[in-house]
Specification:
This protein is mostly beta strands. It has three domains: 61 residues, Roll (SH3 type barrels), CATH 2.30.30.30; 60 residues, OB fold (Dihydrolipoamide Acetyltransferase, E2P), CATH 2.40.50; 57 residues, Beta Barrel (OB fold (Dihydrolipoamide Acetyltransferase, E2P)). Strands 1-6-2-3-4-5 form a six-stranded antiparallel sheet, with no helix packed on it. The chain has a five-stranded antiparallel sheet with strand order 9-8-7-10-11.
């Protein structure tokens, strides 16, 4: 069991038989009443985000989620195939199970498979990924007096604001938590 005082971002809890990942939490103390905790939770299986308010001191059962190293292989319609890099087993997940992670997955990308019991329930990405710029407008020196940005469509379809010096074909690092450009990468 885990208490509201022990909550951390990223842990997985089970509430009413549903697995949730804690995205954010905030302790609230108003006036004379008892303290409350506002939780922002992501349903791991369905992929949607929900918010709940619970009394401070509420206990949750901690879900046992195992992480296994994996490599993204390919997409086949609605199914996306991964290979466990330790056992070489292939596992297929559907689009709903992957949710927003699809925007950061290119072929041969590495990630962590999330396993609950004997079933794969999703993936966990590293904090930053390298993706190739598929299309962006050209830039002419002198277009702006200060550093500016322009939209760039990456190989996965994700649109990111990048500095003006980034060109089509460049490889950039993108933060998977915020979806923001971090830096130009050395390439793959």
């Amino acid at each position: 069991m885990i208490d509201t005082g022990d909550l951390r971002k990223g842990i997985t809890v089970e509430i009413d038989g549903v697995l949730y990942q804690v995205l954010d939490f905030q302790h609230i103390k108003l006036g004379r009443g008892s303290a409350q905790v506002r939780l922002k939770l992501k349903d791991i299986r369905a992929g949607h985000i929900t918010e709940r308010v619970v009394q401070a001191g509420t206990k949750f059962s901690r879900a046992r989620v195992e992480r296994q190293p994996a490599q993204y292989l390919y997409a086949d319609g609605d199914l996306h195939h991964f290979m466990n890099t330790e056992t070489y087993d292939q596992i297929a997940l559907n689009t709903e199970q992957l949710g927003g992670a699809l925007q950061y997955l290119s072929e041969n990308a590495t990630c962590q498979l999330l396993i609950h019991g004997d079933q794969a329930i999703g993936v966990e990405l590293s904090a930053a990924v390298e993706l190739k710029v598929a299309q962006t407008d050209s830039w002419v020196r002198g277009d702006t007096a200060q550093g500016g940005t322009k939209p760039a469509r990456l190989e996965t379809g994700l649109i990111v604001q990048v500095p003006l010096f980034i060109n089509t074909g460049d490889v950039v690092k993108v933060d998977t938590r915020s979806g923001e450009y971090l830096e130009r990468a050395s390439g793959r």
